[in-house]
Write a structure and sequence with these properties.
four-stranded mixed beta sheet; 4 helices; 155 residues; 2 domains; single chain; 26% strand; alpha+beta
């Protein structure tokens, strides 16, 4: 399905993406307007949207740190969402998170030092050791996500 970006009123803040049929419903309900259209394509009276802008501004301060930074807070749930509930070590379902460099060795709870992990890899295989000590590698690299990337995904 085609994804359509949804921006807050004012057009500066990307909130999330929606399926094309959802975007059309937003236009019909008049809660959004077309920000950018696909040239030459229409759906009835509406141009086919590539991105939408909400008609009313919505407050999204809950997505950010209290200090006003635009970097989401590191938490177990946010790390799992960022990594799509996939263990960074073996690829199975991740249910917890692990510090790549353990805290007792100076590793902090940061986006670049935390990854999703399954119980087996986190407690039994790696434990409180570094990757080299445990003989393990990462299947993907951690990154600092944008707030919209942590929104719950619709299935």
């Amino acid at each position: 399905m085609t994804q359509v970006a949804v921006y807050n009123a004012g057009g500066e803040q990307l909130l999330h993406t929606v399926e094309l049929h959802h975007a059309i419903r937003m236009l019909v309900r008049r809660v959004a307007r077309v920000r950018e259209a696909v040239v030459g394509e229409t759906f009835g009276p509406y141009p086919r949207p590539r991105s939408l802008e909400l008609v009313r501004w919505i407050f999204t301060g809950w997505l950010y740190h209290d200090r006003g930074e635009r970097v989401p807070q590191v938490s177990r749930e946010n790390v799992l969402r960022r990594d799509r509930y996939t263990c960074a070590y073996c690829g199975r379902t991740g249910t917890t998170y692990d510090h790549i460099v353990p805290r007792h060795l100076g590793g902090g709870t940061t986006w670049l030092n935390c990854v999703a992990a399954c119980e087996d890899c986190n407690s039994r295989r790696k434990g409180g050791r570094t990757l080299a000590q445990a003989g393990m590698t990462l299947q993907f690299l951690p990154f600092v996500p944008e707030a919209w990337e942590l929104l719950p995904r619709r299935r």
